[in-house]
């Protein structure tokens, strides 16, 4: 049986919890990935996907049609404000 450890990508690219949405998108594009682990120091705090980041940004088709106010968009663009929280970590027995 194949284990999760065997499927894991060594030296995975991560983003910091305080990185903004634009930096997250640049990192995903540069490394050709759709999801990134988010770390705070040495602690895994969640994962972020392109879709999470895209939802946090204003609609590029119209500066006035953003579903978020500028202040709300700026707050959501901080690394702690988008993504998938509640990471569960297991240890080998």
Automatic annotation (TrEMBL):
Protein name: CBS domain-containing protein
Spans traversing the lipid bilayer: none
Pfam families per the UniProt record, alphabetical: CBS (PF00571)
Region (Disordered): 57-93
Compositional bias segments (type: Polar residues): 62-72
SUPFAM superfamilies the UniProt entry points to: CBS-domain pair (SSF54631)
Ranges where the CBS domain occurs: 8-63
Family annotation (Gene3D superfamilies): CBS-domain
Keywords: CBS domain
Annotated source species: Streptomyces nymphaeiformis
């Amino acid at each position: 049986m194949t284990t999760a450890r065997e499927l894991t990508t060594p030296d995975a690219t991560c983003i910091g919890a305080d990185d903004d949405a634009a930096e997250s998108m640049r990192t995903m594009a540069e490394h050709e990935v759709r999801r990134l682990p988010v770390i705070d120091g040495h602690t895994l705090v969640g994962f972020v996907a392109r879709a999470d980041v895209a939802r946090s940004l204003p609609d590029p088709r119209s500066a006035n049609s953003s579903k978020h106010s500028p202040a709300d968009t700026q707050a959501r663009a901080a690394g702690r404000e988008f993504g998938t929280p509640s990471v569960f970590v297991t240890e080998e027995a």
